[in-house]
Amino acid sequence: MSRIALTSGDVRRKDLRRRYVPIGSVIAACLLNLAPIVVSTPVVPDFAFMVLLAWRLLRPEMWSATTAIPLGLFNDLLVGHPIGQSVALWTTAFLLMDVIDSRVVWRDYWMDWLFASFFILAYTYGDWVIGRWMGSSADFGVLWPLIGASVLVYPVIARIVLVLDRWRLTR
């Protein structure tokens, strides 16, 4: 027997899922930074930024640029970045994505991957610049494996976000 109308409990669960799954997935990706992964060179991508980027490219109408502020602050506090680093970089990325969305007539999978690659490169460069301001002496060439790994892992992250979005919108 199929139901024509949802019960009030079903409506509440559906509304909670629609509202909090994107935010919860970004927070869960931020929590991945707490995993005890030890590497000698930076090759572990910033999953929180990539999940945020995948949600923004998949559903541009869902979040405004101000949404990146509390999520970036949470990431800064959790990961140990200087306060405001993720806030500034994530908000700048959202604002640039708004400009791209207003200029580009259509997008497909390959263009999203190209835009994501650009934003991953720009975000990594921004991290490096802020690190230099904070006294780091690392060369930018050390970050190329990180950028390559992030660009290659992005389609997997985008697929996971797509599955989460389909689950979020199911009845």
Write the layout of secondary structure elements.
Layout: H1 8-31, H2 47-58, H3 68-79, H4 85-103, H5 109-133, H6 144-169
Helix pairs in contact: 1-2, 1-3, 1-6, 2-4, 2-5, 2-6, 3-4, 4-5, 5-6
3D architecture notes:
This protein is an all-alpha fold and 171 residues long. The chain has helices at 8-31, 47-58, 68-79, 85-103, 109-133, 144-169. Helix 4 runs antiparallel to helix 5. The radius of gyration is 18 Å and the shape is globular. The mean pLDDT is 88.
Labels describing this entry:
about 170 residues, mainly alpha, 6 helices
Short description:
This protein has 6 helices and no strands.
Low-confidence stretches: none
Can you count the helices? 6
Series of H and E elements: HHHHHH
Q: What is the count of β-strands?
A: 0
Global mean pLDDT:
88
Judged by helices, strands and strand pairing, the structural class is mainly alpha
Computed over alpha carbons, the radius of gyration is: 18 Å
Helix content: 55-70%
Oligomer state equals single chain
Main pleated-sheet profile: none
Q: Which range does the strand content fall in?
A: under 5%
Distance between the termini: 15 Å
Question: What does the overall shape look like?
Answer: globular
